[in-house]
Amino acid sequence: MMKRIVEGIQLDRLSMLDLWYIIPFSVWLILSCFSISFYYTFFSTYFVLVNCLCAWILLTREIFLLSWARKKDLHVLLLTIVIMSLFFQNKNYVLMTLILIIFCMRNTDLKKIGWIVFLITGACFLAIVVSSKVGIIQDFVEAGRNRHYLGFRYSLYGPTIYFNLCALLIYLRKTKIHWLTLCLMLAGNILLYKLTDARLCFGFTVILLVMAGIYKKSYHRLKEWNWIYWLMAASFIGCLIVTFVLIRIYDPSHEMLAKINSLFGNRLGYIKESIRRYGFTWLPQTIQWVGNGLNMEGVQSAKEYLYVDNFYIHYLQQFGVVIFSIITAMVTKLLVTCKKYKDLYLASIVSLLCLHGIVDDLLFAVYYNAFFMISVYTFTDSKKLNMIYQCLMVGSYAWIFYMMARYFMLSV
């Protein structure tokens, strides 16, 4: 979709650089997929070590590439390291590595990454589900709703991964996707719904498959409608605004709002309580939310339930205003860039993910959503050192200075 930032590198060297990225990325992705299943008990001791090792390999690759990279890459690399240090301080090692993976992705072909994510995530998904059904790992069944966790440590993990797999295959194949493939994906979605009772994931996957069917018939005509791109470009910010409006007007004593809250599993009530307790900060903060997920022994927490299922509030509280603003800018820029390249598939899938984010927070990990990663390409395509990179440069240097000063003050 976009040009690579590294120019003039020979094909054999480029292949070596691809492997330098793909191998640690694949290892990290495999372990990340299995970390949300009951397989995590087998490698939990080494998980942090492997995450840090993958991050070190990728960072070494970026330092090696700096001799070819444009000047602005150094500034963004510094910012990436700063953001990684914030997550390292908060012991969020998976996201720390993910930030670096997203930055390094700009030097690797987009379709290669798409197929790698699809094949690895699909293989891990099947391995976990089959293992739970043959008794290798636990298939926890939630009492009351008869929800099968299918080897995962929460009932929604499997359906959300399945949505991502469907979206990836539709994006990679586009109009070439067969009707039989769409029918098989729909059958899989129905089966998954019967096992997990994941209503919202089921509904969004159906919308995705219907969209794929419409585009297969009329894509070349629809992609010329410019107003669709502008509407979709506002989807991330629009969904963020809708979230805040719903929170602002929510009143449990209001009958209609109470019904809406009940329909979405009391999400508005939990969001309001989380905001009351933790508020919003400029930089990342550690929040101990308590959800319905299971620990490695398959036991639910006995603590008071309080979890934010809304993507926007969840990561705005956890990441802070500064980092969430960068995410907002990247996703919005990605949607605007879709108009330039007439990529209605990408614009539609990302917009659907933005809408999905109102009722689900599981959109930031690669195995739940590989499409937010693509936004890095929109920032490496510009030929000028524009205002945003100057801001990133100043912010990076200022934060590094602050970290050094803080370190020396604590050492005295």
Protein topology:
Blueprint: H1 11-35, H2 40-65, H3 71-89, H4 93-104, H5 110-134, E1 141-142, E2 147-148, H6 157-173, H7 179-196, H8 199-222, H9 226-233, H10 235-249, H11 255-263, H12 267-278, H13 311-319, H14 321-340, H15 344-356, H16 375-379, H17 387-411
Antiparallel strand pairs: 1-2
Physical arrangement of strands within the biggest beta sheet:
1-2
Any low-confidence stretches, pLDDT <50, length ≥5?
1-14, 381-403, 407-412
User: Major sheet: size, sense and barrel closure?
Assistant: 2 strands, antiparallel
Secondary structure: helix percent = 55-70%
Using DSSP, what is the number of strands? 2
Radius of gyration: 21 Å
Distance between termini? 51 Å
The proportion of strand residues reads under 5%
Question: What is the structural class?
Answer: mainly alpha
Helix and strand string, N-terminal first? HHHHHEEHHHHHHHHHHHH
**Rough outline:** globular
Number of domains: 3
Q: How confident is the prediction overall: mean pLDDT?
A: 80
- Tally of helical runs: 17
